[in-house]
Amino acid sequence: MATYQYPTFPYRAPHDLMADAPRRRPLVIIGAGPVGLAAAIDARQHGLDVIVFDEDDSVSFGSRAVCYAKRALEILDRLGVGEEVVNKGVSWNVGRTFLREEEVYRFNLVPDAGHKRPGMINLQQYHLEEALVRRAEALGVDLRWKYQVTGVTPLEDGARVSLETPDGAFDIEADWLIVADGARSNVRRQLGLDIEGHVFKDRFLIADVVMKADFPAERWFWFDPPFHPNQSVLLHKQSDNVWRIDFQLGWDADPEEEKKPENILPRVKAMLGDEREFELEWASIYTFQCRRMTQFRHGHLLFAGDAAHQVSPFGARGANSGFQDTDDLIWKLALVIKGLAPAVLLDSYDTDRVYAADENIRNSTRSTDFITPKSAVSKLFRNAALELARSQPFARKLVNSGRLSMPSFLVNSALNTPDTDVFAGDMVPGAPLDDAPVRMAGQDTWLLDQLGNRIVLLAFVDRIEAIGGALAELQAQSAALAAQAIPVEVIWVMAHAGATPADSVTLHDRDGLMAQRLDARPGSVYLIRPDQHVAARWRTFDPGRLQAALRRATGHEMAHSAASRRVGETVTE
Length: 573
Known about the structure:
Layout: E1 23-30, H1 34-45, E2 51-54, E3 67-69, H2 70-79, H3 82-88, E4 90-92, E5 94-99, E6 102-108, E7 120-122, H4 125-139, E8 142-145, E9 148-155, E10 158-165, E11 168-179, H5 186-190, E12 195-210, E13 219-223, E14 232-237, E15 242-248, H6 255-258, H7 261-272, E16 279-293, E17 297-298, E18 301-303, E19 309-310, H8 318-337, H9 345-371, H10 376-389, H11 393-396, E20 437-440, E21 443-446, H12 447-451, E22 456-461, H13 464-476, H14 478-483, E23 489-494, E24 505-508, H15 513-518, E25 525-528, E26 534-538, H16 543-553, H17 556-572
Parallel strand pairs: 1-2, 1-11, 2-8, 5-13, 11-18, 22-23, 23-24
Antiparallel strand pairs: 3-7, 4-7, 5-6, 9-10, 10-11, 12-15, 12-16, 13-14, 14-15, 16-19, 17-18, 20-21, 22-25, 25-26
């Protein structure tokens, strides 16, 4: 059976970066894992120059992060690798939980139709990283392999990064520094920045097995299976006939012994229950923790992904939340670097993503406590819930084998404009926008694909004549919008296909799902952020409200409030 061949990326000597005085770059990223690469790609798509340093020269070893949720796939679409990743990965929506050999719970991640992407795909992290590296190179990201960061010094207007390479050591300065060097972040440790939370005392074995099996592409989780009694087991199908198996071992297990093939192979054979051939591709022992940094922004240093927060693997929140970090961060950073928004806008990255991290940690902790109860009482509750779930539908809702990654509804974000009109449904300010099938220029497409990574105003109209009147009203406000230097793309949404003005972008709500999910009717307008979260919505267009919402969504209101507070404090003194 064929196994994965790890690529080696070329090292480039740092002669162009060495100088008597450190050279300065607008944006430096530490770490070329999925989160660092995503940040770099997004930055280039916003027109930023970016350089990435990584101490290795290949992709991650082993499958590692394997589950990517619909929201992450939608972000990867905007980064230009979504199609490749989905085509290579194994799509699935159904998860099944068993007590011994009896199914007690089942879920479907996409119960309703009208979404481009599946609820989840499984794909080894090394495949994802290869796709991201190719995309980054195509966009002109300056990728530097075998560059070890030996120190970071925060500056008032940036940061100094010390590096060691095969051709010598040097320093470089950054206006802005994104730290994405993983859970064991050397930068975070070197700076003495805190990270707080809970470490769970349990050990799990990952075994990546290459085999041809007829199991369906579903997530299977067993409590107390006969082939691994008194513990839990998780099974996922990956690409290239690789199956990921996680065996719970208990805290007292010896990691070095458990990693030996002679101890892994009997476990796998007992699970398969037959004589089929398989090959062990990779194995690892892991423990896990649920914790985060107190702050993700430290001046001009911005922490993202596992460097900022960690969760247990149950629920697939690690890489998924990391992609949401960069999706939130980069558009804000681009506005700041281009002088279109105040630096205080980046405080909203800290507050919004800390809020999301806390939500993920709560859900991850609940899943982990259910899977690995730490007291006699919690174990009694867990076992009772599992037994009742065999026959009682109400108890199935209590079974928690890892509630899967869901995007955060940033309802408390300082960038939101609170509702003043009445709407039904879930698309409140702060919500990640739902996808829907649409038609554009006579072709079937998807709503989220047409939004891109820019600020968009979705305007619902009922007839072509209405576009003309509304367009004239918007154009009358163009000078005011231009004065704020905040570009806004207007997209018209009509219920029925027909002729549209050549100089406007018009979508036709093919199946009526846009209007249904957004509770929209003719006259309704939605302001959408570049990360495709709802910023504001109204039943009728009002230029004054739009300008105020734009100021709020781009941090100008935050800056005004901060300045007012400083004036007040001065007067008080």
